[in-house]
């Protein structure tokens, strides 16, 4: 949904018959190709529930049901195999790897991950890190993965394990991007007076980031900087309401207007 | 020390005979006028000790001895009474008020404060807020003073109590500036791979901020933005070593070079 403001999107994923939404309806007005969406009647959809703490920034997982994500991965349709910009959303790193292998010649591959994979599937994750261009990860996970508290050193340690770009998301404090060439970029979050639900902020950030890269067709550091800014703006709309409401309420002009505001708020 | 990179400084303060440093030696090579420094042989110097937690960002006060700060304030020398840019460093708000009243016609007055004054001397602090142009405060204190967790709303609530400018310091996450005119500015901290001692970072930030304002002689929002950037850079040198070592090791060129780097790291 987040990336579809910028570029046509090809979705690959798997849900069970218990999914409470009709995704063809959800994406009806979007340039999102659902050929890669598989519904498994005998399976249950992935579920997560958690508690956000008083700062709406840190959260605790209360319940995690992998369900269909613990099964075989969905198949990448033949018509998707020439995709150039690939985002491997958070799931088991082995499964991310299997999906990536089905894409013929990607130009730029980003992946997200999560504490449970760092704790329980570190070898798979390390293998994946050698295959991707960019890891997008939150600050607690970055510290855990690098075994290093200082975020500057943590980012540099993760760069040493494979990806040429590392993006560390810091919630309300924004994000930092590191490149293996030694470039860095730091951008605050868009200031929000009201945060209704941070769930999906990180995915929206990644969607805006990848969407801008795919639209521009470039991955030089200046383009990556702008992509971080777009990701920041898209996430700021997501957290203003529950579920996808923050994104379905806006259009591309709203995103571009807020990008202008973000520049005014941060440039000196 | 921090402000003296930018402008001549007039210091007003009071210490006891137990002060372990000869301040005339410490400031020997600086354009810092110590006429307003009073040594009270019968008194003990203010002391603070605390513990920094693993993120080097949050800290706990272990011991606080007001000592000489609980006595009568120092006198502002006649030769200082025409000062235009005044920084009231953290001390009792009643004492800050008494000091400010001795300055004839200040152009821009900033003040710092601390949790113990918000908790124990709130009426004095509220009276002070109506007399100053700018409050510089850290995020926990801002939340406490505004009784509001969201920092955007907290900043706006503090603006309503008097100062036209509020600066909230967020340690490693940088700072946010709010103006009563509705302008905002957000700047990340300069990324530090090594933090030896954050003590004094906030004071160095305020020193760089006020130093730049005094040097430029202006307080429009664009100048205030640049002042935030200078404060950020000066603080980044302070935390790299203990005591004043981070600042005595550098010169104005180092500050300007790092400002160029900070712009490169944050502008898109």
Q: Topology of this structure?
A:
Two copies of one chain form a homodimer.
Chain A lengths: L8 E8 L6 H4 L5 E9 L6 E6 L6 E7 L19 E4 L4 H8 L7 E5 L2 H6 L1 H8 L4 E5 H8 L4 H9 L5 E5 L5 E5 L4 E4 L13 H16 L4 H18 L6 H4 L3 H15 L2
Parallel strand pairs in A: 1-2, 5-6, 6-7, 7-8
Antiparallel strand pairs in A: 3-4, 8-9, 9-10
Helix pairs in contact in A: 2-4, 5-6, 7-8, 8-10
Structural account:
- The structure is a homodimer of 268-residue chains.
- Chain A is 36% helix and 22% strand.
- The first copy, chain A, has 268 residues and is α/β, with parallel strands linked by helices.
- In chain A, the strands form 3 sheets. A 6-stranded mixed sheet of chain A has the order 5-6-7-8-9-10, with helices on both faces. Chain A has a two-stranded parallel ribbon with strand order 1-2.
- In chain A, a hairpin with a 5-residue loop joins strand 8 and strand 9.
- The longest helix of chain A is centred in the C-terminal third of the chain and has 18 residues.
- The first copy, chain A, is globular and about 55 Å long.
- The two termini of chain A are 33 Å apart.
- The model of chain A has no long low-confidence stretch (mean pLDDT 94).
- The interface between A and B is medium-sized, with 33 and 33 residues.
Summarize the structure.
The first copy, chain A, is an alpha/beta fold. Chain A has 10 helices and 10 strands. Chain A starts with 8 loop residues before the first strand and ends with a helix.
Envelope shape of chain A: globular
| Helix content, binned percent of chain A | 25-40%
Alpha carbon gyration radius of chain A: 18 Å
Number of helices of chain A: 10
Give the largest interface pair and sizes.
Answer: A-B, 33 and 33 residues
What is the H/E order of chain A?
EHEEEEHEHHEHHEEEHHHH
Please state the structural category of chain A: alpha/beta
This entry's quaternary arrangement is homodimer
Largest sheet of chain A: 6 strands, mixed
End-to-end separation of chain A in angstroms reads: 33 Å
Beta-strand portion of chain A reads: 15-25%
* Total DSSP E strands of chain A: 10
Mean pLDDT of chain A: 94
What are the low-pLDDT stretches of chain A, counting only 5+ consecutive residues below 50? Answer: none
Spatial order of strands in the largest sheet of chain A: 5-6-7-8-9-10
């Amino acid at each position: 949904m987040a990336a579809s403001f910028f570029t046509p999107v090809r979705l690959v994923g798997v849900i069970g018959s218990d999914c409470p939404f009709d995704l063809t309806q959800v994406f009806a007005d979007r340039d999102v190709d659902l050929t890669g969406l598989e519904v498994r009647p005998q399976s249950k959809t992935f579920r997560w529930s958690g508690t956000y703490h008083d700062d709406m920034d840190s959260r605790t997982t209360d319940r995690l049901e992998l369900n269909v994500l613990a099964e075989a991965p969905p198949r990448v349709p033949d018509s998707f195999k020439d995709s150039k910009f690939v985002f491997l959303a958070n799931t088991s790193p082995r499964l991310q790897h299997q999906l990536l292998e089905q894409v013929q010649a990607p130009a730029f591959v980003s992946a997200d991950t999560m504490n449970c994979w760092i704790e329980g599937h570190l070898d798979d994750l390390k293998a994946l890190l050698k295959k991707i261009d960019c890891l997008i990860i939150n600050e607690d996970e970055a510290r855990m993965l690098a075994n290093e508290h200082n975020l500057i050193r943590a980012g540099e340690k993760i760069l040493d394990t494979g990806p040429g770009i590392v993006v560390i998301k810091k919630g309300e404090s924004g994000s930092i991007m590191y490149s293996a060439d030694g470039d860095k970029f730091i951008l605050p979050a868009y200031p929000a007076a009201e945060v209704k639900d941070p769930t999906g902020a990180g995915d929206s950030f990644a969607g805006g980031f990848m969407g801008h890269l795919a639209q521009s067709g470039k991955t030089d550091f200046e383009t990556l900087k702008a992509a971080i800014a777009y990701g920041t703006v898209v996430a700021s709309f997501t957290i203003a309401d529950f579920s996808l409401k923050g994104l379905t309420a806006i259009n591309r002009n709203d995103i571009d207007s807020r990008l202008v505001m973000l520049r005014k708020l941060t440039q000196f």
